[in-house]
Amino acid sequence: MIKSSRWYWSWGVLVLVMVLVAGLMTFVLWPREKTPPPPQLASAATKSLRAWRGVTYAGTTVDGNGAIIGFRLTVARDGTAYGTLSRDSGAYAELAVSPKRTLLRGNSQWWFEHEPGSAEALANIWMADPPQGVIGLAGLSRMAPTALAEALSGKDTDGPSGRPSRWRQSGATSVNGRPAKVLTDGTLRIVVSASPPYRPLSVGLPGSAGSQGAATPEPAPDASDARTAVFRSGPQDSAARSAGHVQSAGHVSAAAGEPAPAPALSSAVSEPDEAQVQSTTENVRRVGTSHEQAEPLSQRVAAQTDVAVQLSTSFCSTPSCPATVNVTNQGTAPASGTVIVTVAGQTPLNSPVSVPPGGNRTLTTAARNVAPPGQTIRVNWSAVFYEASVMGDDPALVKRLMGRGFKLNEPLGNQRANDSKGKPVLQLLDAMTADIGPRTSPEVRESRLSNVGKTVANLKQQGAFEPFYDLAVNTDNLRVAGESGIAELAAKTAQLSVSDRRTLQYASDLARAGNKVVWGNTYKPEGSTDGYKADLQNLTGKQTIQRKAVSGGTDAVVNNFAAAINELSGTGVVPPGFDKVAWIDIDPNASTVLAGSDRQALAKEFKKLKLDKYCNGAGGPAFDAAVFTTYPPGPDGTPQRTNSVFTCNELLSSAVDHHKYIQDEMVWKANNDPVWYSGNYISDGRRKSTATTENGVALPELARDNENHWISKDKLPSAPGAKLSPAKSFGPGSLGDRKRSSLLNKIADHRKTSVDLTNAERKFQKNKSAANGQTRDKALQHYRKELGVTPNNSSIPERLGESAARYHVIPEEFPGAQWIPLPKTPNGADMFDQLYRLRDGTLLIVEAKAPSSNPGWRQGKGRYKNKMVQQMTREYVETIIEAMKERATDSPRDGELAHDLKEALDQGKLRYVLVKAKDGGSSYAGATLQESVIY
Question: pTM of whole model > 0.90?
Fold first, then answer.
């Protein structure tokens, strides 16, 4: 029995081994399924696309003004669409498209580009049938599954190729963790899953030749053009404009006999499930039903008042001088507002009035005669019809502008149509004429008002009002070279290219980050007679930037780069000591494959294109940095705007040191790309996440160098860090002063308002949904109510720490401490936060911090110039004293304080404390105190 069992067992093992060997041979010899070649792969993807129930898009496009529009839309098979549109400035809009009509609801920032004078009035209201130029996304009706498949396959005669596509593979990637292949035919781009089922994951369509026409709008039409001047549109709108009416988006026709343009976009695509399609259809139905009476945008802007004010006065020798005001309304809407008359510092008339269309009203008033006895003086009467719906809600602002000589009831510049101004327009006029006063000569006043009016009218007409407003009103960092500079701005804004608009937006970003810039006029360094004119001068970063926008092929990229290099090499362009930056901004839907390339792919292409030839000139490299803006697909296939920075060291190097070059690029962007910096770092240089990487390299820790620029903290060895005493807490109850308590509560509330807006903006940038947009708008409205046009930056939270120290902690902990004012520095760096003298003569240095801030690092000075030093250390104290000594020639007070501080340090009569405010939300919650060990 035992022998028989062994026999069966032996045969069983033998059979099992044979089965395994056979299976292995089958696995090895059986042919694996091969990925089809590119043409078949593209064909399989478009075939799959035709069967989709709809398409969900997450991508970017370029509107007629050259602005980058982000969109997230679901389009059903019948063309019904619902989703959101956005711009980086915080502008967003909801879009609901049915076969019958289009509805759009934008926030005030959205309307800033199109109708700044009516932005507040149009905000958050569903408008019917806006023109394509307002939506910014061409060919909505062509984004359904079948139409998109036809455009990709090249069989659509109206599409971008008009011929069978010749697909080739240009790279490999992954989308949502799924391997994919990047295909191109030289114009179109498509990312397709690398394994069955073969589905499109991302697409790039440059649009038809006609859809990428000149970006510069047409001149303003005359008054008979039915108010179409309020719309700035791409070439697709030209037929509608010449016909004198506005057509609805999604149904915009081309010129007679021409096909409708194909969509131009770069976007991740996916098939929505049944629930998503139903939700899209339901949202469109809900919006359409609840806003059935939504007013067409063309009707809303066409129905406007057209008010004229005529003031009649005469020579007056009596104690009371009479005046008559006649108000006429030639518009199509009733005019209701206030008539304000001013003369010789008096406001004799401030009266409400209503004037129907085609009607007029006459009012009389009288002012006190202010002429001295026996003398005759000349006085200027001024009358304005203040209409809140047209001029905003600030009568004091209107009165101030009237006092400078603006005739606010007349159109700005050379515009002949009635231009709705609104508060933002008036604020810009105010900011550009703030130095106009009683002593200004009539010639200068007339020239300034004329050129400022032209500039603002040009910006409105060409869709560039938003970034310039941000630059000139929300910051104080635009530098203009006197009256000649104002005249240059008027000439510059008369004809803006896409490159001009993008450079203006970048100038606004830089200014909000604290950089002083020159845009649109000549830079004249202080004390120099030489002038330097470029696309942009960054005075803080000491950079001259020539920027080119490219919507064509690779040849256009190379040619524009050569043009930028040539301009940087010209005379009167780059000031001494400035870096030369050539910036090529490739549109997301440009026809070059570079548009969707990441940094690694760009580096390879640039080697082939031999761009390094500009690095070997007789005078050295022709540029210091070359920046290329592209839109490679992110992890989920959505195009991600990316600025890749190259130097000649990299282009000329045969060795590949990606880590160093990429880290250098990130430090460059920390200094020169405010949008990138705010997305990755806290204001003090700390990373928002230590896990974040870019091109496979971790974000560097940052510190300040001696020029207040960011550098990698690892660039230099570090001196010993801070040694602090245990924290001593100070609660708000110990203030004992109602006024101080009220002040600190207000400052805490301002900090909370600032933080809420920052968080809302950050959340909106991550997910540009309608809900996040509304939250961001609400936070922005509250911010403006509390802080007006004050820029939202780190100075607001910092003020809480500074105020907690000055008004609470220091008086309580160090009774009798005497406040010592400190000189201001050009960039706010190289100086302590606060300085006091205690009763025993000891000097007390205070570093004041907001709740989320900690002692930062920077490059040392003096004997520590080759080390990184941290705040709250002796090394840092000596560094700041050294910086103050360097400024002593221009600022004797700095020299005096440096001497006193060094003497106190040497004699052991210097103390150094850290005061950090607590986070109590909208209320002041007290602070903590820690003392540094510096001896």
Answer: no
